[in-house]
Amino acid sequence: MNDVIKLPLHVDTLLPDYALGGCSSAERAEVERHLGGCARCVRELADIADTFALLAEAEVACQPAAPSTLKHRLLESVEPVRAMATEWSGVRT
């Protein structure tokens, strides 16, 4: 008898899309379910959201008209995720 033990998988590869709102509803549900019990992925999501926010605030020297549009879109998409990551930061490993 071969019993296979399934280890919990992290959702690292979905986190950037999740932070930008690019996941399907099934992926979003999977990520949120996982984040409810994984402090490691919550921290990773917070880091990704912070990075996207910093990118939004960075100046783009070669295209001066792009930063305001890019900044607005990135900040709008990551703000809810940053708030959730802060809320979930109390999750213990």
Summarize the structure.
62% of the residues lie in helices and 0% in strands.
Structural class: mainly alpha
Element string (H = helix, E = strand): HHHH
The number of domains is 1
Ends apart, CA distance between termini: 32 Å
Tell me, briefly, the overall form.
globular
Provide the gyration radius in Å: 16 Å
Biggest β-sheet strands, sense, barrel: none
Number of helices: 4
pLDDT averaged over residues: 76
Unreliably modeled segments: none
Number of strands: 0
Measured as a percent range, the helix fraction is: 55-70%
Q: Please indicate the percent range of residues in DSSP E strands (runs of 2 or more).
A: under 5%
What does this structure look like?
The protein is an all-alpha fold. It has one domain (12-88). Helix content is 62%, strand content 0%. It has 4 helices and no strands. α3 (39-57) packs antiparallel against α4 (66-88). The longest helix has 23 residues, at 66-88. The chain starts with 14 loop residues before the first helix and ends in a 5-residue tail after the last helix. The mean pLDDT is 76.
